[in-house]
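User: My collaborator sent over this chain with a note saying "see what the structure looks like." That's all I know about it. Can you take a look?
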Amino acid sequence: MDDLIPQEIIEQRIFFIGNQKVMIDGDLAELYGVETKHLNRQIKRNMQRFSEEFMFQLTPDERNQSVTICHRLRTMKHSLGKIVNI
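Assistant: Without extra context I'll predict from the sequence alone. Here is the result:
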């Protein structure tokens, strides 16, 4: 039971894009204790297990605009901007 992540920590990493609850791939990887590239690789290898809407990638303009608007998203500044629907 000591390995459980407090709900507040998870909730702080969830935000809305439109009316969808989403997380940045890097935040999800950190919660699982893996590198982002490993999380994305495993998702790519197992896409048949996920719906088409599971993950999407922001365009560079969308990513830059999101980083500018929301301080919380500054970790995406140099990332590919992959977003996971939850």
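A starting point for your reply to your collaborator: The chain has a mean pLDDT of 80.
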